[in-house]
Amino acid sequence: MASVLAGCPAGIQREKSYKNYCSVNRLEKQFLEQIRIRDLVRDGEQLLVAVSGGPDSMALLSLFLAVQPVLHCRLAVAHCNFGLRGADSLADEQFVRDWCLRLGLECFVERFDTERHRRSNHLSVEESARVLRYDYFERLMKMEGFTRVATGHHVADNAETLLFNLFRGTTMPSLRGIRSRHGAIIRPMLLLHKADIMGYLGEKGIEYRIDRSNESDSHDRNFIRNRVIPLLLQRFPDKLMPSLQRLSEQSGELEEFLELAMDSLIEREPGLKPEQGWLDVAALKRLTVFEQKEVLKRALREHGYAVDAVLLQRLVDLLSTQPGRKVMLENGGEVVWKDGRFCFLTSLRPGA
Predict the structure, then answer these.
(1) 197: Cα separation from own chain's centroid
(2) Is residue 3 scored above 80 in pLDDT?
(3) Phi/psi of residue 86, nearest 5 degrees
(4) Phi, psi for 301 (deg, rounded to 5)
(5) Are 240 and 232 in contact (CB under 8 A)?
(6) d(CA 153, CA 221)
(7) Minimal CA–CA distance to 153: which of 199, 125, 186, 127?
(8) Of 177, 212, 254, 294, which sits most exposed with the smallest number of CB within 10 A?
(9) Residue 17 backbone dihedrals phi, psi, to 5 degrees
(10) pLDDT tens digit string along 295-350?
């Protein structure tokens, strides 16, 4: 009890809140403890819960409803219909609407032309859906006064993301996986296991929808989720998830340290500011390779380019060549060494 209520406002510690806390079950108490320990939701927050209708998001909504009397927060639901599965997408939307009506919750729904967005922006379906989803959440928060958006990511999602990032050649700090809090986005189930979530749904008799497209291995994330992780769990049943979680946490700690260190470094070196469109070659050469990559990574992101380990190494290798050489970037962009600088140039092609 003390671990949950310690440090809470006096109102939380009154007898009524004590009774509310005692009425929740084991998983709900664990959920509430993580919220308190990680400071994800404060009393009186305006909270938007992202609900797809699948088991994870339905469990998230139920968990928040169970602890709402302790948190004293306003709850509402946001549903994204990406229009990718025809009648099934519409059925998911109606399922969420009906559930919210039954619970007396506000339900905000947005329909997207994901395929059109994907083609226009040269993105994968998954990336396009992610961009559309979080842009919508940001607009909704501004329009309706919400202060947090909660998503239903859990332990297996974090492991999947970490492995996905590893296989596609990410940098070491990015192995932190999914953050429990990133801006206004929170993931309070990040330390919960899928088996516990499914057991909770069964215990509470909560209905949910199944997205059959997740069973296909055509997408890399699905392949990792359906084939790679189960195979690794067969070999390392008690070690895989704790090891990946530990790596994720340590990478997060490293990333926080590096952010502060690089901020200080760039402040001291005017020629390394990523927003100015160029980097001073002499200043870059004075850095360690690791520092060079961190500066280059910031510059690439500042100009809207994706970052991976191969591209960073090519840019570092450019420092060992001579002026006039260049590295081509996506969508016709390039980094050119001229006048003692690495100049970040975007494509001038029509429509690029």
Answers:
(1) 20
(2) no
(3) 60, -125
(4) -65, -35
(5) yes
(6) 14
(7) 186
(8) 212
(9) -65, -35
(10) 999 999 888 888 888 899 999 999 999 999 999 988 788 999 999 999 998 764 44
CA-based R_g, the chain, Å: 23
DSSP 10: G
Which token pair is 337?
Answer: 């060494």
Cβ neighbours around 242 below 10 Å, total: 11
The 10s digit of each residue's pLDDT in 164-199 is 888 876 666 667 788 888 899 999 999 899 999 999
Contact 163, 228 (CB under 8 A): yes
Q: What is the pLDDT of residue 22?
A: 56
- Supply 88's token pair: 């099934």
Residue 226: partners with Cβ closer than 8 Å, 6 or more residues away: 214, 215, 217
* Strand partners for 50: 78
**DSSP character string of 49-118:** EE--SSHHHHHHHHHHHHHHHHHT-EEEEEEEE--SSTHHHHHHHHHHHHHHHHHT-EEEEEE--HHHHH
Residue 55 to residues 77, 130, 233: CA-CA distances in angstroms? 15, 19, 21
* Alpha-carbon distances, residue 104 vs 77, 107, 113, 190, 311 (angstroms): 11, 9, 29, 27, 50
Which two three-digit tokens encode residue 224?
């990792």
Q: Which two tokens stand for residue 161?
A: 């993301």
- The DSSP line for 115-136 is HHHHHHHT--HHHHHHHHHHHH
Cα separation, 70 vs 302, whole angstroms? 41
- Inter-residue contact 317 to 293 (CB < 8 Å): no
Locus of tokens 């050649």: 169
Decide: helix, strand or coil at residue 280. strand
Strands, E, within the chain: which ranges?
46-50, 74-81, 106-111, 148-150, 181-182, 185-186, 278-280, 326-328, 334-338, 341-345
Phi first, then psi, for residue 190 (nearest 5°) are -65, -20
Taking the C-alpha atoms of residue 39 and residue 88, their distance in angstroms, rounded to an integer, is 36
